[in-house]
Every structure is written in C-alpha cells, then in structure tokens.
Protein: DNA-binding transcriptional regulator NtrC
Organism: Altericroceibacterium endophyticum
Amino acid sequence: MPEPQQRTLMLIDDEPGQSRLISALAAREGWRTIIVSNPEEAISALDTRQGKQLSAVILDQWVPGDEAGNLIREMKALRPALPILMLTTSASPMLAVEAMRAGATDYLVKPVAPDRLMQALRNATSLEAPKDELTPLTEKMPVTLDFDAMIGTAPPFRDALAKAAKAARGHGTVLIEGESGTGKEMLVRAMHAASPRAKASFRILNIGAVPANSIESILFGHEKGSFAGAFDRQIGVFEKCDGGTLVLDEIDRLAPDLQEKLAETLISGKVKPLGAQHAFRIDVRTIAASNLPLTDLVASGHFRRELLDAVASSKIVLPPLRQRSGDIAALARHFLTRIGEQPGLNHLSITEGALKLLGAFDWPGNVRQLQAVLFRAAVFCDGDALTAEDFPQLRELLGDQDNDDSPASHDGVGVMLYAEDGNLRSLQEIEADIIRLAIGHYRGRMTEVARRLGIGRSTLYRKLSELGIDSVA
C-alpha cells in the first residue's frame, strides 16, 4: 500500500463522468484522489489533512484562462513544490504559455490518451526524473504537411525520408518503425499529403489508446445486436476510410487474437463487421506505425508473421535523435522559429553554449522532447537568445559543457579536409559534406540550397544522385 504522502492526487473538475474516469485510472497506479469542483474548494482543501498530503494536482481548465492562471499562481504560492497538470480542450499555444508562466508543470490537450495522462502524472511526481524542463509538454503548433518540414541531414534519416517519398506515391501498405517522439506521425501526414489519396479520407487510430474490448468493433464495425450493448450498427474505421488512408498507430500493442483477423482483412481487401453474415470489399491504403521493431516481436512470439508481412510492403525506420545528434542545431533553430511565431512568445536565437548542452543529452523522448524543452525555455527567457543558463535541469544532469555563450551563427560543425590517416580527403567526399551541411542549414529547402550553392536545382539533384546523398524535396 503506497504511502498517502506520495500518492494523493487532487482533481479539480466539475464533470462527474470525467472525474470518475481519472480517479479510476489513478487508482490503478495506487493513487487516492480528492475531487473538488471549483477553485474555492481547491484552495480550501490545501489546508486540510488530506490536502497537506498532496503530491499532485490535475486541473481541468473549464474556466477562462485568466482565472485558471490565477488559481495556479495561488496554489503555487501556497505549495511551491506541488506539481500541477492542466487539462484543456484548447490547443492554443498562448494558453500553454500562460499556464506554464503561472506555474503549471504540464499542459495536456483533450482528448488525451489514458496512457499519456498517467505518464505525465508519473513524470511530474517521480523523484528520479528531472523536473519541469524535461517534462513532455503536449502543446500544439501548426504542422507543415510536407517533407521539407522534416529537418535533418544524417544519412539514416535522409534515407528514411527518401523511402517515404517513394512509398507515398504508391498504394501498398507501409510500416514505419521508430521510438516514441521520432516523428512518425509527422512523416505519415507528409506521406498522405504527397500521395494520390491526398484529398480522400484520412484517419489515425492509436491502438494503444483504445480499450481492448472495443478495438475489434472500432476497426471492423458491428451489426445491431451482435453483442450485449450493440443497440445500433456501428461503422468501422476501415469502412469510414474506404478510398482513403488509415493509419494504425502502435500496432505492436494489438492483441494477438485480433492480429490474425487484421492480417486477413489486409490480404483479402475485405472487411467483415462483428455479427455480419458476409464480408465486403474496401479500398483502403494502410500505414502501420510501431514504437518497437516488429521483427523482434515476431521472434519472441508476440506478433504474427502474416500480419508483419501484410503491413510491410515498404518498411521505413526513423532513427532516434541520439543517432543523429548533428541535426540538433538545425532542429533547434527550426523549432525556435516556429515557437517565435506563437502568440505571446518572442523570436529567439540560441548560443553555441546552449547548442553544446543540447547536443550532449541523449534525448530519450527524441525530437518531441527537444521541442518541448525548447518551448519551455522560450516561455521563461527574458533575453534575445537562449543560453545554457536557460536549461538548468540539463546543466544539473550533464554539468558544465565548456559553454561558449556567443550567438550561434553556424551549426557548430565544419567540413573535414583531412582523413584520419592525415591525407587529404577526395574532392567528391568534401563536396558531399558541403551539400549535406547546406541541406541541414536551410532545413531541406532544396531551392534555397541550390541558390546558396550557386548551382541550378537540376544540377543539385544530379549531384545528390552521383554522390549517393538521399534527399527529397
């Protein structure tokens, strides 16, 4: 039985249904939940015996932003170390900025998957996890739906983009593997935008976020009366996506008994709803995404070989950020540009010292975590540039990195003229490095790369082919 001091949660929510759901989820992990329905009750509860044992607060932001911010500030004034997570239906970056400046630890946009909510709660209260700065932030910024928005020059990353661009033009199934936060959803959306089905229906189904007893009905649909509680016919996502694209995210979490039925559906091109007498044909382009290598799961007996074969006509692997640390500088500048466009935030540059610090971390949350850390730092930065001082938790984790806090005008990398044996490298190798550097510096905008290098776009693509550099535009 966990100690109350470590496992007591206050939920500020006036919706009984949601309160019961969150309380049940928290109870599974040993939390006892105190539910209050308004700010006045919340402040009063802090002074009670249970309130003094609180380890976290979840605030459902149903009141206007200023009032929510005032409540957070008042609670933080009374209990400075108390983590506060805000739930909201608003995807406004301005609200995220206001909540964080008021003292919120995390900001989650509804609907939020149960796993994501509980992970945020674990992160906020873990004694081992870095506080605040490394907490994932579910803030929303407009997404550019093309391959030029995918920043990076590392060969494995460019190879993945090249394969994705080629696969986007076809109709076969695609499997995208990569750790959480590597950019799988962004890649999927770019592929859809570049596909022949770009104007047709497009849906993403996160299998891990759907209750196990509902997933079959959601995928394939059901007929009225097919099981207890089936009062009406339900159309499954395959039927809803007929003619378009269906993305099955976290397919590695699909129950074994459904893997066989999904494989049959993909192979035959026919869907049979629960309780139906006959199957019917559909035309759906399926893209599957997995955080884990499915080949390993097949070897361990947790994933069916026939389903792997069915979903992987093309296979794309997105490398983790720690395997392409040379891209961090370009990614940081790109994110800071986008962050600076959000209401309430300034356009910031970043110093060499800060980039060295970012480059020294291994980023277990990958690109998504880097974006969240930069967003948080930008919210609290009073200057014109982010320095190493703006990342206190990273400095605490990594120590001093011989920081040079002069403005960063380069990517912090150069082109090597000499090989390890002391001899000059070939002109072809040096030229390839310069082109890669330019692609990263100009964030993959190939027209700009060609202009800055003083060559035509067609010449640039010829050189990419001759030098074996994978890229898309």
Summary: The first strand starts at residue 8 and ends at 12. Residues 1-5, 128-139, 409-413 have pLDDT under 50 and may be disordered. The radius of gyration is 25 Å. The CA atoms of residues 146 and 190 lie 5 Å apart.
